[in-house]
Amino acid sequence: MHADDLRELELFAGLGDDQLAELISMGTEVRFTPGEELFGEGEPADFWWVLVDGRIDLVRHVGREETLLGAMDAPGRWAGGFRAWDDHGVYLATGRASVSGRVLRVPSPALRQWTFSWFPFGAHLIEGLFRTARNFESVTRQREALVALGTLAAGLAHEINNPAAAATRAVDALRDACEVLLSSLGRLAAGSISAEQFLALDALRREIEPQSATVDPMILADREEILSTWLSRHGVERDWLIATALAGAGVDVAWCERAVSVLNDGALEPGLEWVVSTVSTAMLLNEVKESTRRISDLVAAVKSYSQLDRASMQQTDVAEGLESTLVMLAHRIPAGVSVVRDYGADVPRIEAIAGELNQVWTNLIDNAVDAMAGGGTLRVSTRADQSGVVVEIGDTGAGMSREAQAHAFEPFFTTKGVGKGTGLGLDISRRIVVDRHRGEITIEAKPHETVLRVRLPRRPRPTKS
């Protein structure tokens, strides 16, 4: 390639022969044929491509479809070179030749050197523009992420508060139950109950089985009334309290008749109080156990979500990360949204930065929940494929327009209002999936479901040098 090839291009108007010759010496002439791909969407923008003749279509994947964003269809049109100014710059589209032609390909470091050599003021302006834009993006994302972190923390506090409050109530009730237990034992001893009678009463107590919490309230009320009447007829003074506890435990009049047959006349009320207090104590202990287990599960979910105990790259169970993310976002999922889990049994572990992937799952699930506006189905699925793992987050919300799909992975693009969202736009999610894990993230708009699909290799491919 010679300086004459570039001199007539409007892009280089005003440049001298020395400037053009130096640029050409830094670059390479690349000839292309129809269908040939010169650069790929999402790859590091390590080269600056200047069209000399021919045509290059700029296409982008939207779901399973390709969208033509534009074309380098006139000499002097250019693409790429972003890494001359931004270490994280990537190609925003795939460059595919539609007719034969040629381009001048200049490495980004060389473009930076040439620009600073001949146009230092312009180079500083361009570098400042990129740096300012990246700083604005970083500050905006950080502030939004802090707001999202506060929301997650508040939701987690709410989730932990429920079982903690339940455990506290159960402990208070357990203290009262123990006092009744000791008091009733003292009254039984004062009534000279024999060892045989106590053993017979204990045998009756063991027959009582815990009742389901879903017992019909009308049936329970009828049972309480029948027991209260029976107890009152047998001289039990606190019949309304004992009847309520016995009815809740599933006791009927026939059981009470058997209790009368083994106890003295004066021992019936303390005997029944002892039975009731032992049953209540067992139920309250189970409640404390369940509440503390729930707290333990939440702490484990936080640990799994944050991945604080793992190195950067580890063998990772994708389903575990999705599940911990669902726990963290439980407060964000309305009652009208049903969550369908479909985790493949044969999904392998992959080498990944689990904490970063959890940030991606947080963003995709949060977006899906927002799209359904309080009602619908959230589908979270995993499956194995030939190269690794496929994760799908689907929602039955209002859907996504073609325009939104086309721009969804661009920096700064959002359809949410200020202060909403997780602070992790799809652009950052794409960087985590594509740049950090060498995977793929796409959108598929089905008639009744919008699906964000993430493909992750078992082992990330080395980054191109």
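That was protein one. Protein two is written in the same sequence-then-structure order:
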Amino acid sequence: MSINTKIRTQDYVQLTRLYDTIFFILQSLKSVLSSKKMKKPAILTQKSLRFFIVLSSLPLFGIVAAFGIAPNSSFLEELPVQKVILNLPLPDITQIDNTDITLWRQERIQRGDTSASLLARLEVNYQDTTNFLLEANNIKAMRKLVPGKAIHAQTTTSGQLLKLRYFLSNEEQFLIERTADTFKLSEQSVKMETQIHMKSGVIDSSLFAATDNAGVPDSVATQIVDIFSSDIDFHRDLHQGDRFTVVYESLYANGELVQAGRVLAVEFINQKKSYQALYFQKNAENGGYYAPDGKSLRKTFLRSPLAFSRISSGFSNSRLHPVLKTWRSHNGIDYAAPTGTQIKATSDGKVAFSGWQNGYGNLIILQHQGQYSTAYGHLSSFTKGLHKGQRVNQGDVIGYVGATGMATGPHLHYEFRINGAQKDPLRVAMPAATPLTTQNMTAFHENTEPLMNRLNMLRDVSLAFLD
């Protein structure tokens, strides 16, 4: 019995000391919390921190017992608490070695680009640019850069080139990798992954400003213009408050975005009128855009041969000629655009003429089915290889905007002719394309229902957000 009493007394002394330690730590923690409320920096003393670490290794029951049997300890209330404020020096970031930091940059090939201009935009240093141009001199892919394609470069912060990827197509990439002071060049197959994106936006100033704000690539914006070009005049009909919702594909390789793909579904609300389009592929070769009821949106003729521009001079029976300074009819539409802007065939047809013709300067005439033909004047140049008798499809690039012939500035003069007589293309009713057959309608509804659901969901969310 005496032994047990002795053990309990020793336990009591140890637990009392343990309690003192705990109380001291709690007071220190209280001081820290108080200092945070007062927004003054405070930390625990090294001594209390050591006690706290030791305490955390003690059995839990010891701590509970200390609180359970602690004596009246009001005398501990006056225990002094010490605050220690330390100024911790920050590292000198100028001394940090950042030579191992690498960056991935991406650029789109623009018309007129060279390998040197691309490397300059990718911020590759002079020495590596020189070495690369020497190595890539015999690489066909780098001598024929395709506008719109993506170039990816991995560099150090000093501009040292480590890797460069050029996606030649959806199945092939050109790869350069650094090995010591030289570059290893190769062509590799690419496994593309398709992801679907959904975006929406509101027109405030222009279509491309709205698509930029919504994070929609320019190639997708251009597709929207092409899809609705027969129903909406994007040169004159856009109004502030017009809205769009779009579902489109993006192609990725090795987890990196290569390029935006095809628009799958889109709605454009122009002056409170809704226009909807769904992509449907009838077979391996023929695909196009249709309204939800199956009506084809592809007209025989596009309203405009330029993706996006403005009309500088309309169709008129009397106009002061800017060069001749005489009043005469203007039997076409002039589209102001920078030199080099792509010109598209407004319909399927055959090249009837390609060359120089008096005031037209460089001129292309396309003969279409039946009584229709179109003319494209003042071109700076023709698409390489274009020749008389060649067949072209609607949307094919046939030439580039210029100021040849009797022109005061770069623009396209476009004529729409019926039996050789010029007509106003903005007023003539264009013939519609053939709609889907009864056999195709079942497959059309099955394939486009998920796209329509995405479009409706995105539109409802956008409208709710705007409200």
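The two ends are 83 Å apart (CA to CA). Keep this in mind for the problem set.
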